[in-house]
Amino acid sequence: MQPAFSSGKPYLSVEPLKGTTTVGMAFKDFIVLAADRRAISGSFIAHKRAEKIHKIDEHVAATIAGYVGDAQWLVERLRAEALLYRSNVGEPISVQAIATLASTILFRSRPMIVVQMLIGGVDHEGGALYSLDWLGTVTRERFTATGSGTPYAISLIESQYREDMNPEEAIKLAIQAVKAATLRDPGSGEGVDLAVVTVKDGVRVIRGEEIL
Fold first, then answer.
1. What is the pTM of this model?
2. Minimal CA–CA distance to 119: which of 194, 33, 199, 47?
3. Predicted confidence (pLDDT) per residue in 63-95, tens digit
4. Catalytic residue among 20, 22, 144, 146
5. For this structure, is 20 an active site residue?
């Protein structure tokens, strides 16, 4: 069963043909996430400053695509669960546990919640990146992309990704990948937001106005 997008309910995109470009890359001790800023409703550009990257905890961030309300609800649920875990256990929740929780919520809620996510962070095992679709399927990735701009973004990342990249090199590649998609994909655009998660600084979100 495919989600119905004809109702006019605002969304950031789930199906590849519907718009949006988000990318993620994982490295030994950091991860980088990036996304365009366009939100669409059908063929209409509903918003030009959509925030598709969100901090989940001090060491975990996520990109979102799908119905806006569903995505915002899921982000807040994951934040609450991460805070509760930290309070009860006295240490941060693992990136894998957050991804598993999101997968369980999506699986149990299908097809009522339509959200696709990339979840990335750094914990005791190092950098970790997970991709989740709206059915709850979860996979661990070294690098990946979602949305209609995927063919343009992933081809660039795949040709230049190295496991020994430093944060500056990874940030530059993530920006280039999203920008390549926005130049060729009508469903993506309006600039780039990104997040870098490191052991030292935690989650650092950089909005489009700060990116030259």
1. 0.88
2. 33
3. 998 888 899 999 999 999 999 999 999 999 999
4. 20
5. yes
